[in-house]
Design a protein that fits this description.
- By secondary structure, the protein is α+β, with helices and mostly antiparallel strands.
- About 25% of the residues lie in helices and about 35% in strands.
- The protein has helices at about 5-15, 25-35, 135-145, 175-180, 185-195; strands at about 20-25, 40-45, 50, 55-60, 60-65, 75-85, 90-100, 100-110, 125-130, 150-160, 165-170.
- It has a five-stranded antiparallel sheet with strand order 9-8-7-10-11, sandwiched between helices. A four-stranded antiparallel sheet has the order 1-6-2-5, covered by helices on one side.
- It starts with a helix and ends with a helix.
């Protein structure tokens, strides 16, 4: 469930909208993709937590300039693939926690709309509980069940034209801060679901 390529393919199968995406190790294909979008982001193909011998750090989703690959005079093949996506204008980021059939949906409002990744600790944000459309909730629960998960944290965005777009699913995504911010009973539901 951690593999982003599988996540995106399954999201489409369950009727979820996803951003335009390319995973490539070709500088030419990457350059073409960036130039075909108004704005794009780059993110890790798998887990963004990097553990080295002497330190641990996170790689966050970041905006990438459309001219980034212009300095490559010929096609260059990267050692590892990169994941690029169209950057969508969003009203809100949304974290959806699913435990069994229970769904907690939280809107995350970044106070600086130019910021891309709300997970950065220094980003100021506000949280509020929201109700997703029932058809979307149902699709997310089916997706969650298809992966045989007891718990999942799903990241969506709500675009400025009120579309809900799937970004990724985290089978071990964090939740305690939402209990603290909004008084949700996620831990209690998780304990009951696993007993």
């Amino acid at each position: 469930a951690e593999r982003k390529i599988l996540q995106l393919r399954l999201a489409k199968q369950f009727g979820l909208l996803i951003p335009k995406t390319i995973i490539t190790n070709s500088s030419l294909k990457a350059d073409e993709f960036l130039k075909s979008n108004n704005s794009s982001i780059i993110k890790p193909v798998s887990n963004g937590l990097q553990v080295l011998t002497d330190k641990t750090y996170s790689i966050y989703t970041s905006e990438i300039k459309s001219t980034f690959f212009e300095s490559y005079e010929r096609e260059f093949t990267f050692d590892t693939p990169i994941l690029l996506q169209e950057k969508l204008q969003n009203k809100f980021d949304i974290r959806v926690i699913i435990i069994g059939q229970t769904v907690f949906s939280v809107s995350i409002n970044k106070l600086d709309k130019n910021e891309v990744d709300w997970r950065k600790p220094e980003i100021e944000k506000e949280y509020s509980l929201i109700q997703l459309p029932k058809t979307l909730e149902k699709s997310l629960i089916l997706y969650h069940k298809h992966l045989n998960l007891v718990y999942s944290a799903i990241d969506l965005i709500q675009t400025v034209d009120n579309q809900f777009v799937f970004l990724e699913i985290n089978p071990v995504g964090e939740w305690v801060w939402l209990e603290n911010e909004l008084g949700l009973n996620i831990s209690e539901k998780l304990i009951k679901e696993t007993l």
